[in-house]
Structures are given as structure tokens and as C-alpha cells.
Design a protein that fits this description.
The protein has 517 residues and is mainly α. The protein has a domain at 50-397: Hydantoin permease (Orthogonal Bundle). It is built from 23 helices and two strands. Strands 1-2 form a two-stranded parallel ribbon. Belongs to the NRAMP (TC 2.A.55) family. Residues 1-31 are annotated as: Disordered. The chain crosses the membrane at residues 87-109, 129-148, 168-186, 198-215, 287-308, 329-347, 378-395, 415-434, 446-467, 473-495. It is a multi-pass membrane protein. GO terms for molecular function: cadmium ion transmembrane transporter activity; manganese ion transmembrane transporter activity.
Length: 517
């Protein structure tokens, strides 16, 4: 009898050890080199005070926020910027500012989940929801990532076409851009700091390129300040306004940021150290998104100065922006066409690499895959590159066709936004998940209000798009059926969350009631 009990204890001990080793293996597979944050000699107590601010430590925590900020600078955002500038002039700059602030709040909540739990959002979703719901969330996240990646890869391909004087077609640029997967794997093997340094160079390249264009075109300083400080919105610019807000919240970026913050080694048992990490990540992310706002501002004002009120305003997009810039501003020592191409290439390359990174965490987290890094990168990259090459071969360089494609891709990503925001807000307010680091009731209401606003704005985009594009009985029935299933799943996610503010439900229902009357 005693022998059997000893055997059971030994088996249990071995199982625990196996689980621990698997967990460590999984962690080391994602981050082989975690950055160790230097700590002063302190007691082993759990509730340590937050250490004083240190510039050295801020530097050690700097990196994840800048990788996260790439999604605010991808080719899809740049296209939204140039169209907003060309059609609305300087009038939507205030909205760009507030959209960036809303995006910052969402990303800080994502970082909070990652730091406080030691796990990223995709892993937590797998544990929080039933199997079928987890698989649906995974599919939605993958679709959003594929849509974003197609835009990013095509943006890079357009830049390569510009810089090669048109010798390389779009499909060739897509294949060249696909090689970033191997650049990513090569740099990651040398440590996360090398990867972060690459992104710093790419962001600096964008900053210098678009700042050069800003200096060359000399936008009006007075109009720029008025655009930031004075809210203005006309019926003619509603679509561009929706685009400005819709481009800021990227579903895959919400998943990515919760994983990136785990590249720093933090002891979750020491509450003071966790709070310290949250403080530094808040500073770093705020700086990173301030820089992204300035870069987006440069692009918007350049096209506002050059094309607002012109006959080209309504037809400008990524595919022809370089041509219009060249016609407007000519050559010079450094032709503005090539400056634009360099900035666009930096935006496309950086965002496709972060897409590869996000794809690994999304697939690994939702499906609990334990694959080699190179194999996961190739699989997740193929999910996006194969359809992108097909798209490039089908659409080629037709401006009208690429514009239609871009509209559909924006719709695809807009549809996925609730499936990143609702799980995030559900988890970040749960004491069972977050412990003492769950958000308070005031921040919870603000976060749900921001999420509801973003979802309603994107809902407007979807309704506007489907009203104009959905034709035919069969297609209409398919869209209607899909819409019912879509809304039903969103309702399920909200009902599953016991953190959704009841007063917000009352407010929304009153709004719909008053609208109906």
C-alpha cells in the first residue's frame, strides 16, 4: 500500500516536472534571450515598493512599444493619411491625434495583460473561452492578419517598383518582400535587441523621409495648428474620418503587444517590479506613438498642401501617389518621388516583419503549437504571402482594381476588431486573471466606451460599404446570414464577459430607442 502511494507521489512529481519543463521550453522557444532587468539587493517579499525612476532602466525597457507602433505606420495607415490630406485638407488632424490617444490606451491595456500574467492574449483566450469559441477567435485573428499583411506587402512592392524605376513589377516586389521572414529569423537568433535595433532604423528612415517631404512642400503652419486644435467635420469628409480612426486599431497588434512585453525578465511575484515594468512600458509606448503621430502628421499635411481641392484629390492612393508627387513637385537633387518610395519601403518592410512576429504568437497561443521558430515563421508567413502573390498577379498594377481590393481589405480588418477588443477588455478587468493589477471601474468604463466608439465607427464603414457594394439576391442573402452569425458571436462574447458595464448597456439601448422614435 505504502509502495503504491509512493509510486503515485513519484508519478505526480514527474508530471509536475514535465509540465514545468514544457512551460520553460515553450517560453524559451518564443524568447531565447530575455533581457534581464538589473535589480538592487532587496528582500524576497511579495509586496515591494516601486523602485525609483531610472533612465538606465527606461532604456532597458525600450523596444516593445516601438515594435507595436509600426502598426500605426503601415502602408494602410499611410494611404489613409494621404487620402485624408488630399480630400479633407488639414481639418482631420485633430481626429488623428485623438485616434492615436485611443489606440495608445488600448495598447497599454494589452501590455498590462502581458506583464501582469506573464502570458500573451492569444494564450489567455485559449484558456478563457470554450474550444469552439477559441477556434473562431483564432480564425478571425488570422483573417485580420492576412488582410493587413496583403496591404503591407503590396505597399512594399509598390515602393520597390518606384525605386526600380518601374523595372520590377508588383508581383516581383511581393516575392522580394517575402524574404523578410528570413531576415526576421536571422536577427532574432542574435537576440531581441538586434531585432529592436532594426525597427529603430526603419522608423528613423520613415521619420527622415517624410520630414524631408514636409520641409520640401512647406505646409501652412497656421492651418496645421488649427487642424490639430479645432475639431471640424463635414458630411463630405465622413468617410475619411472613419478611415483615420479605423486604421489605428489593428487586431493583430493587440495580440502582439501583450507578447512583446514578455521579452523582459520580470518576477511576477514581486508586485513592485510588475508595477515598475508597467510604468516604464507606459512611458515607452507613449513616446513611440507620439513619434508615429508626428510621422502620420507629416504625410497628411504634405498631401493636404499639394492636392487638397485639386482634381486629383479623389483619385489619389498608394499606387499613384508617387507619380502625383513627381508631377507636382518635380525632381531636384533628391527627387520627392524617391524620398516617398524610401519611406514607403521602410513602412512596408517593418510592418511585414511585425506581421510575421504577430502570426507566430497568434497561431502558437490559440492552437498551443510547439514548433520550431523557423517552421512557425514559414507557416504563418505562407498564410499571407500565398494569397498576396495571387492578388498581385490578378490585380497587377490596375489602380481601380487595387482601390477595390484595398476597400475590401479594410472591411475585412474592420470586421475583426471586436474579436480582439472584447476578449482584451474581458480579461484585463478579471481579478482571477489579473490579480491586483486588474483595471478599476473608472478605467473599465472608459475602455469599454472607447471600444464601443471604435466598433460603431467601423460599423458605419461596413454599412456604407455593403450598401454600395452588395448587389444580387444570392449575395445579399449570404451577407445577411453572415451578419446575423457575426452579431450573434459578438453578443456571446459580451455576455461571456461579466465585466461589461451595465450602465453602458442602458445608455446604448436608450440611444437605439431614441433613434427608432
Amino acid at each position: 500500500m505504502n509502495v503504491e502511494m509512493q509510486d503515485d507521489k513519484e508519478d505526480s512529481k514527474n508530471d509536475d516536472e514535465t509540465n514545468r519543463l514544457l512551460s520553460e521550453s515553450h517560453e524559451s522557444d518564443e524568447y531565447e534571450e530575455k533581457i534581464l532587468i538589473a535589480e538592487a539587493e532587496e528582500s524576497d517579499g511579495e509586496d515591494l515598493a516601486v523602485p525609483p525612476f531610472s533612465w538606465k532602466k527606461l532604456w532597458m525597457f525600450t523596444g516593445p512599444g516601438f515594435l507595436m507602433s509600426i502598426a500605426f505606420l503601415d502602408p494602410g495607415n499611410l494611404e489613409g493619411d494621404l487620402q485624408a490630406g488630399a480630400i479633407a485638407g488639414y481639418s482631420l488632424l485633430w481626429l488623428l491625434l485623438w485616434a492615436t490617444i485611443m489606440g495608445l490606451m488600448i495598447q497599454l491595456l494589452s501590455a498590462r495583460v502581458g506583464v501582469a500574467t506573464g502570458r500573451h492574449l492569444a494564450e489567455l483566450c485559449r484558456e478563457e473561452y470554450p474550444g469552439w469559441a477559441g477556434y473562431v477567435l483564432w480564425v478571425m485573428a488570422e483573417l485580420a492578419l492576412i488582410g493587413a499583411d496583403i496591404q503591407e506587402v503590396i505597399g512594399s512592392a509598390i515602393a520597390i517598383q518606384i525605386l526600380s524605376n518601374g523595372y520590377l513589377p508588383i508581383w516581383a516586389g511581393v516575392i522580394i518582400t517575402a524574404s523578410d521572414c528570413f531576415i526576421f529569423l536571422f536577427l532574432e537568433n542574435y537576440g531581441v535587441r538586434k531585432l529592436e535595433a532594426l525597427f529603430a532604423v526603419l522608423i528613423a528612415t520613415m521619420g527622415v523621409s517624410f520630414a524631408w517631404m514636409f520641409g520640401e512642400t512647406k505646409p501652412s503652419g497656421k492651418d496645421l495648428l488649427m487642424g490639430i486644435l479645432v475639431p471640424r467635420l463635414s458630411s463630405k469628409t465622413i468617410r475619411q474620418a472613419v478611415g483615420v480612426v479605423g486604421c489605428v486599431i489593428m487586431p493583430h497588434n493587440v495580440f502582439l503587444h501583450s507578447a512583446l512585453v514578455q521579452s523582459r525578465k520580470i518576477d511576477p511575484k514581486k508586485k513592485g517590479r510588475v508595477q515598475e515594468a508597467l510604468n516604464y512600458y507606459s512611458i515607452e509606448s507613449s513616446v513611440a506613438l507620439s513619434i508615429s503621430f508626428i510621422i502620420n502628421l507629416f504625410v497628411t499635411t504634405v498631401f493636404a498642401k499639394g492636392f487638397y481641392g485639386s482634381k486629383q484629390a479623389n483619385s489619389i492612393g498608394l499606387i499613384n501617389a508617387g507619380q502625383y508627387l513627381e508631377e507636382k513637385y518635380g525632381g531636384g537633387i533628391f527627387p520627392i518621388l524617391y524620398i516617398w518610395g524610401i519611406g514607403l519601403l521602410a513602412a512596408g518592410q517593418s510592418s511585414t516583419i511585425t506581421g510575421t512576429y504577430a502570426g507566430q504568437f497568434i497561431m502558437g497561443g490559440f492552437l498551443n503549437l510547439r514548433l520550431k521558430k523557423w517552421l512557425r515563421a514559414v507557416i504563418t508567413r505562407s498564410f499571407a504571402i500565398v494569397p498576396t502573390i495571387a492578388v498581385a498577379l490578378v490585380f497587377k498594377t490596375s489602380e481601380a482594381s487595387l482601390d477595390i481590393l484595398n476597400e475590401w481589405l479594410n472591411v475585412l480588418q474592420s470586421i475583426q476588431i471586436p474579436f480582439a477588443l472584447i476578449p482584451l477588455l474581458t480579461l484585463v478587468a478579471k481579478e482571477q486573471v489579473m490579480g491586483v493589477f486588474k483595471i478599476g471601474p473608472v478605467l473599465e468604463r472608459v475602455a469599454w466606451s472607447v471600444a464601443a466608439l471604435v466598433m460603431m465607427i467601423n460599423g458605419y464603414l461596413l454599412i456604407d460599404f455593403f450598401v454600395s457594394e452588395v448587389t444580387g439576391l444570392l449575395f445579399g442573402l449570404a451577407v445577411a446570414t453572415g451578419t446575423v452569425a457575426y452579431i450573434a458571436f459578438i453578443v456571446y462574447l459580451i455576455l461571456h464577459s461579466d465585466t461589461f458595464p451595465s450602465d453602458l448597456i442602458t445608455l446604448i439601448s436608450k440611444r437605439f430607442t431614441s433613434t427608432g422614435n
